[in-house]
């Protein structure tokens, strides 16, 4: 497979119109989103074995479980009540509310279905160091950068429905150990992600009006694509080639249940 080629980032020299800014942000997704990563091509194309899929699901749990923390960090520094009211459901979408166990629970159903011990997954003990560092870098970014940049960093959700649909069809078609129950997380996000992305996009288009602000939100979205890409780089190196997990990271046969 030929290596990915990344064109230069959009870098406006004068203020863009709201529509021009949206086009620049979408260009970042079209050229840098992690659906382009070789690991995802292998995953969706049925080219990974069960243990490699397990490694992906276990490591991705680190990211899933951090989403409510990064959203709480954003809300904690927001004086805009309407933004907080809109952002609140992002936390309950993942942590759950009432009878709905939320996205984190649905991800654990996925790892259960792959035969991984739930307590081991939740502990994150077997996650790769690079996974943990990338995820915490994202939480730090949302906590420390401007509120506008923090909102912009969530805009990878503009591109999520496409990768979720590809994942559902590809994994169901290519792996006999993937069922409808296992892919429930992705089906739910087909509705949730566009709603969240539409709000965040309108917020960014309304508030990023100067050249400096527009460059900052483009950089913020680019940073988020790098967070996602780095996690797949780590997985590919550890479990595909040269298949050398870091000391202490999950290896085939560890914490596998009878379901696997």
Describe what you observe in this structure.
This protein is mainly α. 67% of the residues lie in helices and 0% in strands. α3 runs antiparallel to α4 (81-95) and α3 packs antiparallel against α11. It is globular, with a radius of gyration of 18 Å.
Which consecutive residue ranges, at least 5 long each, have pLDDT under 50? none
**Helix coverage percent of residues?**
55-70%
Percent of residues in beta strands: under 5%
The biggest sheet amounts to: none
Structural class by helix and strand composition: mainly alpha
Q: What series of H and E elements makes up the topology?
A: HHHHHHHHHHH
Helices, by number, come to: 11
Give the distance, in angstroms, between the N- and C-terminal Cα atoms: 31 Å
What best-fitting shape do the alpha-carbon axes yield? globular
Q: Could you give the count of β-strands?
A: 0
Radius of gyration: 18 Å
């Amino acid at each position: 497979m030929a290596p990915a080629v990344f064109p230069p980032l959009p870098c406006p020299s004068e203020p863009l119109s709201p529509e021009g800014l949206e086009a620049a942000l979408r260009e970042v997704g079209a050229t840098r989103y992690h659906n382009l990563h070789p690991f995802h091509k292998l995953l969706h194309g049925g080219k990974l074995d069960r243990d490699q899929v397990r490694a992906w699901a276990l490591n991705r749990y680190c990211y899933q479980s951090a989403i409510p923390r990064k959203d709480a960090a954003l809300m904690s520094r927001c004086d805009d009540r309407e933004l907080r009211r809109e952002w609140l459901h992002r936390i309950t979408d993942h942590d759950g509310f009432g009878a709905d166990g939320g996205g984190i629970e649905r991800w654990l159903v996925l790892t259960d279905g792959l035969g991984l011990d739930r307590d081991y997954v939740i502990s994150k003990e077997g996650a790769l160091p690079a996974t943990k560092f990338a995820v915490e870098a994202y939480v730090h970014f949302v906590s420390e950068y401007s509120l506008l940049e923090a909102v912009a960093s969530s805009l990878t959700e503009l591109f999520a429905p496409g990768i979720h649909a590809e994942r559902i069809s590809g994994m169901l078609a290519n792996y006999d150990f993937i069922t409808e129950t296992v892919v429930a997380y992705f089906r739910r996000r087909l509705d949730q992600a566009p709603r969240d992305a539409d709000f965040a996009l309108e917020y960014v288009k309304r508030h990023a009006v100067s050249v400096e602000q527009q460059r900052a939100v483009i950089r913020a979205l680019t940073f988020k694509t790098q967070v996602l890409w780095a996690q797949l780089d780590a997985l590919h190196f550890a479990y595909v080639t040269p298949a050398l997990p870091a000391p202490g990271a999950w290896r085939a046969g560890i914490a596998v249940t009878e379901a696997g």
